[in-house]
Each structure stands twice: as structure tokens, then as C-alpha cells.
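S1.2 Input.
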Amino acid sequence: MAGLKEIGKNDRKLIANTIRIISAEMVEEANSGDPGFPMACADLAYVLWHHFLKFYPENPNWPNRDRFILSPGYGSALLYTLLHLYGFEVNKEDLKNYREMDSKTPATPQLGITPGIELTTGPPGQGLAMGVGMALTAKMRAARFNKDSYKIFGQHNIFGLLDNGDIMEGVTSEAASIAGHYNLDNIVYIYAKEKTVRNNEAKTCFSENVKEKFKGHGWRAMRINGHSHRAIHTALKKGIAQDRPTIIIARVHAGYGSPSRQDDPQIHNNPLGRFELRETKRRMGFSPSSSFYIPREVKQMCRDRINNLEEQYFNWLNEYNEWKNEYPELSTEWDEKKKEKIPDDLENVLLENIDKGQMSTRQMSKSVFRKLMELYPNLVGGIPALVQDLGLDIESISLMKKRSFQGNMINFGLRDHAMAAILNGMAVNSDFIVFGGNYLSSSDYMKPALRMASRMNLPLKYLFTRDSCRVGQEGPSLHPVEQLTMLRSIPQMSVIRPADRMETAAAWSIAMQKNDGPVSVILTSQSVPKLRGIEPRKMEDVMKGGYIASESRDKYPEVTVVASGSELKPCLEAKKTLLSYGITVRVVSMPCREIFMQQPRAYRNSVIPIKNSILAVVEASNSMGWEELTWLPLRVIGIDEFVKSGPEEEVTEEAGMDADSIAHEVDRFVGWIEEWEEDKDRLEDENS
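S1.3 Output.
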């Protein structure tokens, strides 16, 4: 922490105004973006980065660095300017290429593109909530690896900059409640309270008492003038010293320093304009004709700050090496956590731990999780208050407690949206493997954060139970209908719906090995019958996402029936009925469509015929999305409306997911295709 008096008032003002001008120039050059927020927050950003934030640009992933989250991603010009001034690999050309295709400076901060970016942000509230996850993992890391004489892990803070939109979104209240409950004193957020909300005045839609709201969540809250360096410095110093999370409500002016557009609601949507930018430069003592100019004094002060941080970095490194020598076992565990070793033949190891009796795939998953917790001590996660319903009531899982972070699972209560966003923060640049779970119908509450997980390619593992209307008497409000389609529509998300113990073991093996995006494992709450009439299977085929479960006597069957999860059993039974009608059938199990579509074409064609057949897909879900499997005639037997409440067997029949209904629909489809072909042949004869 650097004292404010070390730099004169005029020099402090010069750095802040440099941040303002460069940010506004970036937006002007792109002819797109928001100059208002960066100009409003330049004083806040200067005091935080120059006097408090702990980082080392030569090693952006230094474990003990402070994290800075720009939650309103539209203000990204501010963050890119800071990264440039403080030595990260963002040069002046990168600033000039703001919002250009494939540049280091995209419209919103994106993880993995720009050095120094901690999170992909943009949607309001997501950055704030993910920061809570980062704070939790810092506490968990410290609990596992620190010793009385060596406090070297988790000794950093999570700083965030928020706007009106962040505060308004519901996910913020959920996340703030969790942070307050766990006394996450390593969070210090600054809420830049402007008079505007996007292109409207804030008073037209927002009048709540933010200070009292956060105090009610267990935070320390204070109000300051966000353009007073002394007030900002004092507030940050107090916030860091608190025994609970802190929010600093800083009153700021959008477009601060602009002669005629300060507090103009439209400043969040448009560049200043060349004339206004020139006049702003003139007012701040810059040459109106200058372009991306950084005064020599500013460069030197930023270099001095980097040199000071370099000393802190190497002091920490020396202490870290001493810790490694003093505690070699902990050091080995730390190194192993970062490597995330996957045992050979993991799927078969997991399969051995699943009983062969009849049970739900959720119960099968419970057996798998017991083994996974043994294999991966760094497997941590969080769920709503549904431990038993998700099959996670096992002895090796211990709940996190208030002010105690040795546990490996967080009870989020009923805060589904924040839970998903917080899990994202736990998974970012983390040495933990992170899982989460919920009812499948409640995945809608999690959707914005699931999308962000995919956007950042986070290797999160989700388990969703109560996978279909077969939950029966729970009623249509809890019957998932469109959720599988929703999950599959998210890029990078793999959705696996296993039918039995072998597929359940394969599902979790795939989930544990996937590192380029999240995986959702979809599980039944009801028992699934043993599969009879299924071909002898190889685990390697199951791992390909789709395979032949029951072959036809013909090379090209009249119908290929594709099923997932609990629909595989009735499809195998329906095959017998169809055979009695003289219809040849191949049954394909497809637990994961995404993985199947990644297989070589030759394998896909060996499973789903490319000619002389028609395709029927059976799944107790919305019927959209299966068109990518084939160019053959396709009939999806799904559920496209809400189903009545009742006992499982009756609801299954009502939904058309029993064997007789499936056989009837496939038979009708075959008949329709035969009529169509006869009509086509007749028309061809008439026209010849």
C-alpha cells in the first residue's frame, strides 16, 4: 500500500486525466463504445492501481496478486489503459485497435486474450458474483496450505469496480448475501454511482438505499466523493482492514471533465465527438492535437510503481521457496493440485465402484462421486440445499462453515443464479476442480452464468437431477421440458444423459477429462431398469457419445431409433413390437450428442446409416436440435408441452414415452414415409 502523500496533488491529477483522455481516445478511434464510465472512474482506478493493487506485470498469474474485476465490461477502455500504463503486454497499437477484430482489446474484457484480465465480464452482476467465488477459493487455499509462520497463500484481495447495472441485477443481492454470510473480508468493491443508467437518468428507475441494503447482507458500506483522491484512499484503507466484505459507494460523474457532455445519459452509447474530445483535452491541460499522448512524468511514476511491486513480488517468491523447503509434503500437494492428473482408464475405475443393482442414475453418480473425492482431493463445489436430492450426501464431502474454509462443498441455499456465477469465479485460473448441481428445471435460474462459463472455457462439472417428466407427481412446474435444448444450445457445453451404470461412469470420466468448457451430466431421480436386449458394449464406444445398443438384422434397417437416458429401455422394448410388424430396427444410445458429432465421419456413419433408412429420435425433452444428426427423413418423438401431474407410469404414458407409444409413433412414421415415396413414384411416372 503506497501512501497518497508520496505523489503531489498535481501529479495525481495528471495520471487520472491521462487515463481519462486515453480511454476517450480509444472510443473515438473505434467510433464505438462508452467514454462516460472510464472518465467517471479514472480517479477511483488511479488510487486503487497506484496505491493499493498488488500485481506484477512480468508474471500476470502470480498466485498472491490482488484480483481486479471490471464488472461493467462496456467500460473496458479504462482497463486496457491501466494495463498499458502499468507494464502489461498491451501496447499503444493495441489501444488504437480497440474493438477491432482479433485485437487484444475487444469490446469487453475476455479471459485468455489480454494479459492481466482476470475474468470475462459484460452482463451486469456477473463480475461481482464471480469475484465472490475468487474470494472463496483464496480462503480455501489459505486454509489448506498456510502455516503460522508462512502466510503466503490467499493473502490477496478481490477488488471490483461496479456500476448501477451491477447493483440492480438480482444476482448481486444473492452473491452479496453469500459473501456476507461467509464474512469474506478479502472483498473490496467500489460502486461507481452515476446519475445515469445506460441512456437514461438513474432516478427514473432506481431509488433504493444501496448502503443499507449491503449492510443488511453483512457488509461494511461507506459513501464517498469518487473524485476525491484522499476520500478514495481513506475508504480503501478502511475496507482492506475490515473483518467483512466492503462496498464503497462512490458518487461520480459520467464523462467527468467533458465541457458539455458530463452526466449526459447518451455518453454511455457514443464517442465524445472530435470537437468535444479536443475541448476536453484543452481543459485538462493536454494539447488538443495530441493523440494517445502519455506525459513523461506519468510514465516515470508508473515505472516507479512497477519497481515497487517487483520488490514485493520477489519478497513473496523468497518466502514461497522457504515454505517449500520447510513443508515438502504440502509443496508436493500444491504442485499436484495444479497438474490435475487423470488416472488411466478412469471410466473403468469408476464403473467398478457402481453397484449392479437397479437404481437411479443419480444413485450411480453418488457411487462415482465417492471415488472421485478419493482420487481428487482438490475437487470442490457447491449446490443449493439439495444434498440428498443430488446424490452428494457422502462421507467424504464436508460443508464449508462460516469463517472456516476447510470444507469442500458450499451450501448456497436457494441462490441458484449467484451459485452458478460464484462457481465460475472459483474455477477461473484455479488449482481446484469445481462442480455444481441442481434440479434440471432450475438450470434456467443459472443460465446467464452457465453461458459465461462456456464463454471462458471453464472446465466446470455440473450434475442436474430430476431429468424428465418421469418425476411424475412433482408436477409440471418441476418437469423439465426445454432445459436440455437450452443447455445444448450453449457453445462449448457438453450435455451427457446416461442410461445405465456404464454410461454414468463414462459420463463422469468425460467430465473430468474435459478442460475446454463445462459439462452437464443429466441424471434420473427414478430407478432405471436393467437394459435387456442390448448388444455387448465396449467402453471406448460409449465414450464416443453414441453407439449401437441393439443391431438390426439388416445392414440398412428401415428405422434407426436414437435414444438417450431413461428412454433407451422403452426403445429397446419398442423394437420387439416393431419387429412383429415386420419393421427392421437399429437402436442407438446417444448419451452425448456433442461428443458424438466430434467423432470421425466414418464412425458416425457406422452408427447412423446414411442411406436406405429413416431416423427416429426419442427423448423426454423438447424436440428441437436433432437435425444435425442426419439428412435422412427425421421424426423426433419428444415433449413440446407441459405434462400433467400424476404417478410416474401414468405421466410417462401421457407424454408418449412408454414402449407402446414409441412403437406406435415409429410405425406411423414408417407408414407416412412409405406413402410419401409411393406418391413420389406415382408423380414421377405421370411426368415421364
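S1.4 Remarks. The mean pLDDT is 92.
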